[in-house]
């Protein structure tokens, strides 16, 4: 088999995230049926937020929230994502950017661009969450939101449930989603396994490269530079595990 470094880095197919959403929807519907609950409501997840280094204007390298990455594959910060349990429709909510954003950071993409890129049913702005979900729920006065909240037994930290202005206009379920979505992430598809394998191959090659080029007296930062150069240059991975994170939500 050819060395991974001789191959082009694989793109993470959006079909992977479509299948992840279908997998969650199937598991969640099965659970609701078995517990004699109606098949309505919305799964709602909040993506990661951009952060600055303490009080400075330096923006730290953004890493997407893992569960959100697993379901939607979104690379940008400030998004929300929802799945309508009754219809299976997927909705992305995009931050509404000010006009001067384009001066410093480039073109402000239209909503249709995100819909096509991330293969979701519809896209709206984040300040429209309340109106859109109420409209989709039809006659329900307070639509039900399945929010992500549960303990990570490795870090002993809890997943943060989505928060937004107007959330008091919804009923909230904080117990159902986390164990079901976590179980979905544990069992990998063939596409996920292929991407994880690629990232592991590149990481292994980079470690070998460090050992091959290391010399007595070299500093740790110099060895780290060799490692990062190999993963950037040949693997297209900003972190040695970044492909895994994008594809599967796992860190």
TrEMBL record:
Domain Aminopeptidase P N-terminal: 12-156
Classification via InterPro entries: Aminopep_P_N (IPR007865), Creatin/AminoP/Spt16_N (IPR029149), Creatinase/aminopeptidase-like (IPR036005), Pept_M24 (IPR000994), X-Pro_dipept-like (IPR052433)
GO BP term (any one): proteolysis
SUPFAM superfamilies: Creatinase/aminopeptidase (SSF55920), Creatinase/prolidase N-terminal domain (SSF53092)
Superkingdom: Eukaryota
GO MF terms held by the record: manganese ion binding; metalloaminopeptidase activity; proline dipeptidase activity
UniProt keyword annotations, A-Z: Dipeptidase, Hydrolase, Manganese, Metal-binding, Metalloprotease, Protease
Residue ranges that the Swiss-Prot or TrEMBL entry lists as coiled coil: none
Reaction catalyzed: Xaa-L-Pro dipeptide + H2O = an L-alpha-amino acid + L-proline
SMART domains registered for this protein in UniProt: AMP_N
Keyword Ribosomal protein attributed: no
Similarity comment text for this entry: Belongs to the peptidase M24B family. Eukaryotic-type prolidase subfamily.
Assembly notes: Homodimer.
Protein name: Xaa-Pro dipeptidase
